[in-house]
Amino acid sequence: MFREEVEAFMRRFQSDLCEALERCDGGATFSTDTWKHEEEGGGISRVIQGGNVLEKGGVNFSAVRGQLSPQFLKMLEMPDANYFATGVSVVLHPHSPMVPITHMNVRYFEAGNGQAWFGGGIDLTPIYVNPEQAREFHRLMKEVCDRHHPTYYAEFKKWADDYFYNQHREETRGVGGIFFDRLMATDEISIADRLAFVHDVAYAFAPFYTRIMNENRDLPYGEREKQWQLMRRGRYVEFNLVYDRGTKFGLHTKGRIESILMSLPTLASWQYNFTPEPGSLEAQTQQYLKKDIDWLNVQ
Amino acid sequence: MFREEVEAFMRRFQSDLCEALERCDGGATFSTDTWKHEEEGGGISRVIQGGNVLEKGGVNFSAVRGQLSPQFLKMLEMPDANYFATGVSVVLHPHSPMVPITHMNVRYFEAGNGQAWFGGGIDLTPIYVNPEQAREFHRLMKEVCDRHHPTYYAEFKKWADDYFYNQHREETRGVGGIFFDRLMATDEISIADRLAFVHDVAYAFAPFYTRIMNENRDLPYGEREKQWQLMRRGRYVEFNLVYDRGTKFGLHTKGRIESILMSLPTLASWQYNFTPEPGSLEAQTQQYLKKDIDWLNVQ
Asked: Which chain A residue shows the shortest CA-CA distance from B170?
């Protein structure tokens, strides 16, 4: 059955990713908590804390079956109250402000009316935007997309810009990446093709992010960079609690709270009315937190 | 005009409260930022940072007139898109985990269809619940309520329990207090009576909270208490970003972001799956974070 094939892929991916991250971090290993869903199914939460590079990170697998409340059905624009959902969701918060926060997610849904689709994406939230690294990241995302469909990158890059956006701040969460949802079978593209794409997205993540970890882990920083990191993490918290659909879905479908909120950092800060000095690296980063930047060609 | 009388009261209250808090804190004064609303009106944000007792605190006045979007009209269950709103909103985050976080708010709404009402309340979020202090707080709230109506306290205490509730954690934000909304004129109670009640709530706040500041400011604490405080502040952030109607109203009506989010603490923390040791003071506090505790008679 296709559903079981997808679930098995998600389990394997979780395990492979944790292994790759542990190997790169070198200082801590992932703990494992398994949990059961209130309705049917459950998950495996794997969390790393106090590593050499990673201060706090989670790689969550879940596969749950349930029924959405009428109110939530509408809010999520779901075609049917019955659902099956499986996926892996990842958030990594490094100690160093020189190593970007990252998030990635691959997921599969089946609604009771027979509709099925994939969603997912990868995005990067540097504390200090390094345009060259952002460009390399986007080029890699384009490469993965291009292998499957010529319009994927352009579409999914825009989707990430629009999605990872703190509307109340008029500011993107980071330098974006790709984001996609409701990738169903069409006349042209089979659901197996969709899975092949999602598979490639998933397995592009570790090679890319561990390279960034290695490139940036020994860069020096001080108190000022740390303070800026804590504030940027505050914006990350704002996005996750106010807008993130995965978080909303989890909170409203009685998911395991500690697994859903493992995306929040160990420490975050809010300073009233903080404005970076004009011309500073912090001000420069703020300039990059905009939609529609052509990261492929940024200098 | 009644509306102007209410607005003048709100302005006076903001200024009186800041003065009382500055006098008690003794280490810092409130800054003043005035801002204009995108539609009509504006506000005065007064913020204290780095005081002797108060690490970060805001006392916001605003008076704005505008039009709600259809979607938001429904979400807030408002009778008309046109509105006038004025109020004072207060959040105080002390340095010391021995001094409770507090929030209070008094507000007045007029809808385009002529309906007008008051709302408000005071609530207390101790990092370590001191049952005696919580009892004194609730007794004072009852006293203020009883002066105006025999059912106010019971009603508004329950309202606070239900409102200041982190549903996803099944945990109250703190020890509650009173919360009320949509207090309109009735056959029995005039709108001027409502204002008199709101006035008494407002002016009960400073004497009570400055007493707690003074009682608790010199209590000793260490690293363990500080860590617990940062985690409890994390829950405070969760409530404000996920549930708080005032925050939602502000974010959706394009209020001034820095004024709305001054309610967030300088520093907050999330630890994966943290559970207090059985029998510890932290575990005891968690036991108190429940609805329907009879605080008036707690031992």
From this structure: A257
